[in-house]
């Protein structure tokens, strides 16, 4: 995975500190071709500068140009630009499991949504008058409250911070709109709002004068904006056209979904789908890892855990083309050898006990030629190991056949999802919603042939 989330530790340096919420320099004539940014703001050339070369070109590499007043930074040695928050906020993903107290209480206190008064936990609310908490000395907020409740200083140091990192402007550049006016993206406005709120708290230091409830409210506002910045950054990673996360998810081998060619297994129960052994790890990675790839044990687990998948034949035609089914491991149910399994609903005990050496053997299969033979000399159904198989009686809903159709199969895992999916089993979906006909039925051609034979007799 290309994306990693690590704890950020920086060495604070006044040269890298952003202190003004203003983006553009005030009282300056501005033009799109030559925007003048505030020297202490989030686009300051004094703080962020240019990459590799200053504006006038005299300084190259790293340094500061006295001529044009522009700093020069390197991509390979980017400074830690930041804004001091004046209060501690939670990191992007705090380790609440190891905080030592109730996770929900810790989360509310660390985000200034709760506080302690005389040792009791209280919620921050607009409807609660401050007169209910007359003794300022009995109020504990943030870090002080966590320490009082038993959270270790080490946990607080690792899961909170008193700054927010600010990326270089080349990652959040100014956009010029169709009216030839500068536009600043959402993340830039959030940075500006956060710095303004921090400055307001500092300016009201005399007014606050140690009043912890007032400080709690302001810290809560800072924490909320900080969380909005985190959400905006994650949204950028996820939604942009060339998103790293999106690319990784699409290409990742363990995705919980497969595309496979459909084959005919008329001996199966209408609710059962055989999953080729080669796909099991992708659809059910946890079960695969739990049983170390043992297909017999995996099949038993699929049955005992009431595992289900969703099967879809593209293009999706409303609810008609999506059905839920019970997955089974293909090598446990070779054709003609599934007696006593109720069409694959039950585990194939007899066959698995007698042929355990033939089940789940696919890693040493040699080539494509074997895929087109039904059974190899060793009795292994190599075609089935690389396909999915269903009873043709349930194919009216997906409107599919067996001439090479490729269907999408997706694992579902939660108890609630599986319970909901039962309504989509072929055995529970006999009626075609569009015209009221029976969906799961014996093929008309087969019925015609039977009737013709009766007529001749």
Helix content: 25-40%
Instruction: Tell me the structural class.
Output: alpha+beta
Binned strand content = 15-25%
Mean pLDDT comes to: 81
In which order are the strands of the major sheet placed? 12-16-13-15-14-17
Tell me what you see in this structure:
Helices cover 29% and strands 17% of the residues. It has 457 residues and is an alpha+beta fold. Strands 12-16-13-15-14-17 form a six-stranded mixed beta barrel. A four-stranded mixed β-sheet has the order 2-1-4-3, with no helix packed on it. The longest helix has 28 residues, at 212-239.
Summarize the structure.
The chain is of the alpha+beta class and 457 residues long.
Write the layout of secondary structure elements.
Elements: E1 50-53, E2 60-61, E3 63-65, E4 70-73, E5 82-90, H1 103-110, E6 114-117, E7 120-123, E8 139-140, H2 142-149, H3 153-159, E9 160-165, E10 175-176, E11 182-183, H4 186-203, H5 205-208, H6 212-239, H7 244-251, E12 257-264, E13 272-275, H8 280-283, H9 285-290, H10 295-304, E14 308-312, E15 322-329, H11 349-354, H12 368-371, E16 388-390, E17 406-412, H13 415-421, H14 444-456
Parallel strand pairs: 1-4, 12-16, 13-15
Antiparallel strand pairs: 1-2, 3-4, 5-9, 6-7, 6-8, 10-11, 12-17, 13-16, 14-15, 14-17
Helix pairs in contact: 4-6
């Amino acid at each position: 995975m290309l994306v990693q989330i690590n704890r950020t530790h920086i060495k604070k340096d006044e040269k890298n500190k952003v202190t003004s919420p203003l983006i553009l320099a005030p009282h300056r004539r501005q033009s799109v071709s030559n925007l003048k940014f505030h020297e202490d703001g989030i686009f300051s050339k004094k703080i962020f500068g240019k990459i590799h070369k200053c504006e006038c070109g005299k300084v190259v590499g790293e340094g500061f140009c006295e001529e044009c007043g522009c700093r020069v930074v390197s991509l390979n040695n980017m400074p830690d630009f930041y804004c001091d928050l004046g209060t501690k906020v939670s990191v992007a993903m705090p380790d609440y499991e190891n905080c030592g107290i109730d996770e929900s209480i810790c989360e509310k206190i660390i985000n200034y949504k709760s506080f302690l008064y005389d040792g009791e936990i209280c919620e921050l609310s607009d409807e609660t008058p401050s007169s209910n908490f007359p003794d300022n000395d009995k109020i504990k907020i943030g870090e002080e409250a966590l320490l009082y409740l038993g959270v270790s200083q080490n946990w607080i140091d690792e899961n909170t911070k008193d700054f927010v990192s600010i990326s270089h402007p080349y990652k959040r550049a100014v956009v010029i709109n169709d009216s030839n006016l500068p536009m600043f993206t959402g993340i830039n406005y959030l940075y500006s709002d956060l710095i303004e709120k921090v400055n307001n708290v500092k300016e009201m230091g005399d007014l606050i004068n140690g009043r912890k409830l007032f400080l709690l409210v302001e810290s809560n506002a800072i924490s909320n904006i900080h969380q909005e910045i985190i959400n905006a950054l994650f949204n950028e990673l996820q939604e942009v056209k060339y998103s790293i996360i999106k690319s990784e998810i699409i290409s990742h081998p363990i995705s919980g979904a497969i595309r496979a060619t459909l084959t005919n297994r008329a001996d199966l129960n209408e609710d059962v789908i055989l999953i080729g052994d080669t796909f099991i790890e992708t659809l059910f990675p946890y079960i695969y890892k739990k049983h170390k790839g043992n297909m017999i044990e995996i099949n038993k687990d699929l049955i005992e855990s009431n595992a289900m998948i969703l099967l879809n034949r593209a293009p999706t035609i409303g609810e008609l083309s999506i059905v839920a089914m019970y997955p089974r491991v293909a090598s446990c149910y070779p054709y003609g050898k599934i007696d006593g399994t109720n069409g694959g609903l039950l585990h194939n005990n007899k066959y698995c006990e007698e042929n355990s050496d033939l089940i789940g053997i696919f890693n040493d299969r040699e080539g494509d030629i074997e895929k087109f033979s039904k059974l190899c000399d060793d009795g292994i159904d190599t075609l089935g190991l690389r396909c999915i198989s269903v009873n043709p009686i349930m194919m009216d809903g997906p409107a599919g056949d067996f001439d090479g159709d490729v269907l999408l199969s997706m694992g579902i895992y939660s108890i609630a999802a599986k319970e909901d999916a039962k309504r989509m089993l072929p055995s529970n979906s006999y009626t075609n919603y569009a015209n009221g006909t029976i969906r799961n039925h014996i093929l008309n051609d087969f019925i015609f042939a039977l009737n013709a034979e009766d007529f001749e007799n």
